[in-house]
């Protein structure tokens, strides 16, 4: 039986993943702001450092897998863009960087990060903020959100999930991760009925927007179904799965973006493509 760490374990999809792992007799180290083995506030750098260290100690330096589900939804409030940035982006990236060696120690670890279909279905997410996050610069990202006024938290949410998805895809193929046997992937849910969504539905303006959003399958997702996908992505079925963003959203992304992917490499990108070919050969030589 393996040892897994799950953040955002006290509620919603994280809690559903914990239930399934424990039912399969795995050891689970839970991390949340409350009601967890490791209580940590992931919105602060000190809280994130504490979570890294306490989990490493509890796991004895060896992790078979990690699920990063802690996250905040867009809600009104001046501090919200900053909180979203700290928890949703740095609360994943800093933890995983801190746990990399422990994941490498088991030789076949699996990591699942909770991204979102907001990354591809929400319009006008500022690219500058995404670049800033990938550069590790929260302040620059926050500046980009200010232009959006009361929509700043929504933009911060979308940008945090775009940056997270890109970070996953970049790190997943980096030799220091993939050659260590770590399989790093993301799941991108649509609207799933958890306390996070319930809170959004309790705000009349947000409820209208959420209920009018196209979901071809109808209704909302069930947290247990999403957890089933995560469990599959933690299993040996994911041995050849690297840097995938698995969209489970009732068809919203396909509705808006059917022709955007798969997209062949256009002629104007050929030079960059050939450069990546050379880089790969150089890394593997
Ligand atoms: P949830 O609110 O039910 O659970 C999130 C958990 O994160 C909670 O237990 C909460 O305490 C924890 N958390 C929040 N702030 C924290 C902090 N500062 N420190 C430590 N823990 C903190 O939400 P959920 O819907 O299960 O969401 C799980 C993940 O899925 C999130 O990353 C969310 O962005 C993502 N997601 C959710 C939906 C949805 O519709 N529910 C859709 C797409 C993506």
From TrEMBL:
InterPro entries: NAD(P)-bd_dom_sf, SDR_fam. GO terms for molecular function: oxidoreductase activity, acting on NAD(P)H, oxygen as acceptor. Keywords: Oxidoreductase. It holds the Pfam family adh_short_C2. The keyword Oxidoreductase applies. Belongs to the short-chain dehydrogenases/reductases (SDR) family. This is NAD(P)-dependent dehydrogenase (Short-subunit alcohol dehydrogenase family). It comes from Nocardioides albertanoniae.
């Amino acid at each position: 039986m393996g040892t897994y760490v799950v953040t955002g374990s006290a509620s919603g999809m994280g809690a559903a993943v914990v239930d399934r792992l424990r039912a399969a007799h795995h050891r689970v180290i839970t991390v949340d702001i409350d009601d967890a083995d490791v209580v940590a506030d992931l919105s602060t750098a000190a809280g994130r450092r504490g979570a890294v260290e306490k989990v490493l100690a509890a796991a004895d330096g060896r992790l078979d897998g990690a699920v990063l589900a802690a996250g905040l939804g867009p809600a009104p409030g001046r501090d919200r863009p900053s909180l979203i940035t700290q928890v949703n982006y740095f609360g994943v990236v800093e933890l995983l960087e801190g746990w990399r060696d422990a994941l490498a120690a088991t030789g076949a670890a699996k990591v699942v990060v909770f991204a979102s279909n907001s990354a591809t279905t929400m319009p006008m997410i500022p690219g500058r903020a995404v670049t800033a996050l990938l550069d590790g610069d929260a302040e620059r990202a926050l500046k980009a959100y200010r232009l959006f006024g009361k929509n700043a938290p929504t933009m911060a949410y979308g940008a945090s999930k775009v940056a997270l998805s890109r970070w996953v895809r970049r790190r997943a193929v980096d030799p220091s991760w993939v050659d260590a046997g770590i399989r790093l992937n993301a799941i991108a849910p649509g609207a799933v009925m958890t306390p996070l969504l319930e809170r959004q539905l309790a705000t009349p303006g947000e409820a209208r927007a959420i209920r009018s959003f196209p979901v071809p399958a109808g209704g909302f997702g069930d947290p247990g179904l999403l957890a089933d996908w995560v469990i599959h992505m933690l299993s040996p079925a994911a041995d050849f799965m690297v840097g995938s963003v698995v969209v489970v959203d009732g068809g919203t992304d396909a509705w808006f973006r059917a022709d955007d992917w798969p997209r062949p490499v256009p002629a104007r990108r050929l030079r960059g493509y050939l450069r990546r070919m050379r880089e790969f050969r150089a890394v593997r030589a």
